[in-house]
Amino acid sequence: MALPASFRLALGGARRECAVGEPTGQAACEVCEQPKTDGDELSRCPICFKSYCKECAYLFSGRTFCSQHCGEYFFFANPEDEEV
Predict the structure, then answer these.
(1) Closest CA to 27 of 2, 52, 60
(2) Other residues' Cβ atoms within 10 Å of the Cβ of residue 61
(3) CB 25 within 8 Å of CB 36
(4) Please, which residues have CB within 8 angstroms of residue 17's CB and are 6 or more apart in sequence?
(5) Which residue, 17, 31, 43, 56, has fewest beta-carbon neighbours within 10 Å?
């Protein structure tokens, strides 16, 4: 099975194919796991980087997150708890 040209990588004049499978053309919300079409927009959580749809979005203080936990962590996390 040949991959699309967008997945091919030219190295030293030789063409190699990446080990990535063909894209399905659909992304899925990582919260509700429902596939989304190109017309649906997925957002990415600034804390855990999960993709979520507008139906699953948790609005907290003017920003959206994938869950209540991420929203509260964004605003109330103690910076001293984080390791450097």
Answers:
(1) 52
(2) 9
(3) no
(4) 2, 3, 7, 8, 9
(5) 17
